[in-house]
Specification:
mainly alpha, Cytochrome Bc1 Complex, Chain D, domain 2, two-stranded antiparallel sheet, about 55% helix, Cyt_c-like_dom_sf, metal-binding, transport
Length: about 120
């Protein structure tokens, strides 16, 4: 049988869980990318994503996409998926593991702002 003391704790636990969930959802919404900040964070991307027709050959041969002009949210979510292991590529996973959510959002905004007429960034 459940005691009255245990029953009185249940509403408190439910409220606490709701507050934690609401706080984490609000925190996720707070991450806003900044293209100017991303400008200095893309140095890890330059080795592959800035070379036209580049193919990486470890562990398999991959055609590396040019990501300038890609949707910012897509880039950030792709990086998050590499970090979580949902996308499989060892180099991308290790790079994404070093990035914070803010870094991913900034990199996404940086690449989303790129056009054919964007000035060349030696770090990209």
């Amino acid at each position: 049988m459940i005691s009255m003391k245990k029953l009185s704790i249940l509403p408190q636990l439910a409220v606490t869980a709701a507050l934690v969930f609401a706080g984490s959802a609000a925190q996720a919404d707070e991450v806003k990318g900044n293209a100017a900040a991303g400008n200095g964070k893309v140095w890890l991307c330059v080795g592959c994503h800035s070379i036209p027709e580049y193919r990486a050959d470890y562990p398999l041969v991959y055609k590396v996409p040019m990501i300038g002009g890609q949707n910012a949210a897509y880039i950030a979510s792709a990086l998050a998926a590499y970090k979580k292991g949902e996308r499989k590529h060892p180099t991308m996973r290790s790079i994404a593991a070093s990035l914070s959510d803010q870094d991913m959002a900034d990199i996404g905004e940086y690449y989303a702002a790129q056009t054919a007429s964007s000035p060349n960034n030696p770090l990209k």
